[in-house]
Amino acid sequence: MDNHNNRHSSDSSAAANGPPPSTTYGSLQTYTAGEDSSRLATLAKEFGLSRQREPRPQIRLRVPEYALDTLNKSSLRLKKIYGRVKSFSDGFEEMRISASLGMQHEDENDDTFAGTIDEKRVLLSRNQQESSSSSTIGLLLTRLSSVNEFEEDVEQSTTTTTSSSFEQQQQDQEDPHAHGLGGTLSSATLGIIKGMVGPAILYLPHGFAGAGYLVAIPLLFLSTAMFLWSSTCLLECWKMETMRRQEKQQQQQQRRQKIALSYPELAYRAWGRRGQRLVQIGITLMQSGVCLTYLIFVPQNLRVSALLLFNVDIPHTVWLLFMVIVQIPLSWIRDIRRLTVTNLLANVLILFGLTSCLGLAMRQMGEENGGAGDESTSFLEEMVYRAKSLPAFNPDGWFLFLGTSVLLFEGSITLLVPLIEAVNTPEDKQKFPSMYRKVIIGIVSFYAFFGTACWMAIGDSVRTVMTTSLPQGMLATMIQLAYSLAVVFTFPLQNFPSLEIVCASVEKMMPKTGSDDVKHSASKMLKRSYSEISDGKRNVISSMVVVSLSIVAVLAMDDLDKVVSIMGGLFGCPLAFVLPPLIENELGKGKIGSHKKFVNHTVALLGFGAMFVSTLTTLINW
Fold first, then answer.
1. Which residues contact 22 (CB under 8 A, 6 or more apart)?
2. 552 or 513: whose pLDDT is higher?
3. Can you give the pTM of this predicted structure?
4. Looking at 154-196, which runs of residues are DSSP E strands?
5. Distance (Å, whole) CA 510 – CA 481
6. Is residue 614 within 8 Å of residue 567, measured between CB atoms?
7. DSSP per residue over 1-28, as a string?
8. Can you say how many angstroms the Cα of residue 11 is from the centroid of all Cα atoms in its chain?
9. CA separation for the pair 416, 408 (Å, rounded)
């Protein structure tokens, strides 16, 4: 007992004395409660002890400053990383949606945006104050929002121009990232990758198996070459229109024109309002088609996951109903910044799914090593053997790959012009086209490797949704659930541009009252919304759109490969191959040579032929 008491006494005194005096301490403390002396005396009496031991005192130890500094620095570093990633994701979605919608060119007799310059100046100032506290990318992308529609009128006054410039300088000083949200080529590279890589890559293994490698791989790179040519055409159009804008600024020094260029805007300048509507309709149908594939993708994944986890076969329609119930409220959201966190999570889940799918494919080929007839064959020899055993051509389904190869580019063509506009320095703008081509070629090369590797690992039995063909196991189930959750989070952002265009079309059909003119103008500027239809009516429209897509999904649940082919062929080919070369021919009259015009017409004709063949053959074989 004495030894016990002595040990505790020495422990208590050591704790009370604290660490050696040579250690430097910060302000953060740890706390250990002391013992009650009367309670110890009572316990000693109950056990018949002659005396009680000394109670343990309270202990307050300070954490060393170096540990505190390390903790604070790590916390700040994590906060900065999260803030930058969140800012990039938030601003990227604003850019993507603004690029899809374009500017709203009102009729001359439409007084929806009537109002004095002072009213617009106040609204613009409020909108800038709201934007100045937002993310880095969001601040830069304010140029791409609907507020630009009013900036030209606001800056007619010299005093307004001076005030706006001074306010912007103050905002730039407050935010060190104000000039570079996207401003660098590295940010633009991330934007290209984020806009192109998505769930559509999972359709490639089935497309390769359905077409054969002699058709699939050459067709994939032929589509890439045509896409890069069309991208060059759009970049040339952007360059010509930028030079015209600069010439106007020099001629009219009292007005500073800052109209954001985009794919729909370039179509408007080439063919007027009809051209803009044509591009917007194409984007609307394409985005709706992508959402339709999501409504088929998720039920198929969740059905397989439930069967493996719980041994319960739940029909596709039940999972589709669950998807609709979740997506209808999400479609009511008008401020996409509320979806930033879920969008970030979706990106992480997609990255996890892609790497895991590729890893599973490689592991499966390694585990089944010996297919070449010798169990001692190496992994590389096994891959060569499997590659040689793949069918070169499939006459029954090769035509489906026409549309599939085009669908891969659906998220890139609309982002091209806003991305180069967001680049800061003229030197980086000159490097952007070369960088863009290299990134696209790198992504497509990864696509080809991913599709071929997964096809070799799974075989010709690979399904349209590749995740449902993975070998059974916990990792495969995690991939299916991760991709399903990622698609659920991505759906509202994919559906947003087409929904806004539909709401704007409905709004134009509705009667307008003169008393709501300034109100509508204020609402558009502060909400950064393309349409100013009331929330209740917009919710009804968005719900009807989701329900309509779900009805089509029920009818096409077992034909996802054909849906993908139709989306890519009928809607993707015009946007990616046909319209950009024709826009350049129209805007570049007198500036481009006859050879360039001939090549543009040839690419547009090939794109139209691909659209016709892909759509017709898919419908015939449905």
1. none
2. 552
3. 0.72
4. none
5. 43
6. no
7. -HHHHHHHHHHHHHHHH-S-TTS-EEEE
8. 58
9. 15
Q: Which of 5-9, 95-99, 181-185, 315-319 has the lowest mean pLDDT?
A: 5-9
Kindly provide the b/e burial profile for residues 171-202, where b requires at least 16 CB atoms within 10 angstroms of the residue's own CB.
beeebebbebbbbebebbbbbbebbbbbbbbb
Token representation of residue 468: 């449902």
Which residue, chain included where needed, has tokens 């040519």? 229
Question: From CA 51, how far away is CA 9, in angstroms rounded?
Answer: 14
Confidence of residue 155 (pLDDT cuts 50, 70, 90): very low
The residues pairing with 64 across neighbouring beta strands, listed in sequence order, are 25
Measured CA to CA, the distance from residue 458 to residue 460 in angstroms comes to: 7
The predicted pLDDT at position 364 comes to 82
Buried b (16+ CB within 10 A) or exposed e, 436-467: beebbeebbeebbebbbbbbbbbeeebbbbbb
Q: In whole angstroms, what is the distance from residue 602 CA to residue 356 CA? A: 41
Bridge partners (DSSP) listed for residue 59: 32
Reduce the DSSP state of residue 516 to 3 states and report it.
helix
Q: DSSP state, 577?
A: I
* pLDDT, tens digit, 9 for 90 and up, residues 180-189: 344 688 888 8
Beta-ladder partners of 30: 61
| Tokens describing residue 295 | 């409504």
